[in-house]
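Thread: Newbie trying to understand structure tokens

Hi all, I'm a second-year student working on a class project, and my supervisor (Dr. K.) asked me to get a predicted structure for one chain before our next meeting. I've only ever worked with sequences, so writing a 3D structure as a token string is new to me. If someone could post the tokens and maybe explain what I'm looking at, I'd be very grateful. Here's the chain:
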Amino acid sequence: MVYRIHFTVHDLARTRVAEAPMPLSELDLAVRAFQDRGQPVRLGPWRRQVLLRSSAPTRMAMSLIPPIGWSPGFLCPVRAGSPEELLEQVRATPPAVIRADLAAVAEQQALPDWARQLPDDASLRHELYDGLGRLYAALMNTPIASATEASRSSAAVRSLIASR
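---
Reply by user tm_fold:
Sure, no problem. This is what the structure looks like when written as tokens:
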């Protein structure tokens, strides 16, 4: 099924483009695309490259972001910023917030057994945060991500030129 969306001149005049990407939201989508086995020709080489770089901490982080379903909100702050800033924000998440986010997800789907201990185990949280940082590096610092970034940069330049 194909959908067509028609924009009026007034719609386009009110349209805004984000000034900066939201890296951890993009990571969430990349993890889901990685775990979904669709589009093998397009994404197969990227998946193989990421598998070569995966480690126990990266698999740990991926286990909280399923291909379909909920992921804990604390892992994916919905705001712009550098990956480093946002990963620091995730690291600063209070245990009570982690507990509440995990409880909300657990109402919808099963969590890994180790996740129950996450709010109370600082070393486990450190391992998860390390895995999240490594996962970002593995998934987002690849040729396909570089091409996406180049495309974004090009779109941003075209947008600036069009607004003048």
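A couple of things are worth pointing out once you decode it. Residues 18 and 80 are 9 Å apart (CA to CA). The chain has a mean pLDDT of 87. Feel free to ask follow-ups in this thread.
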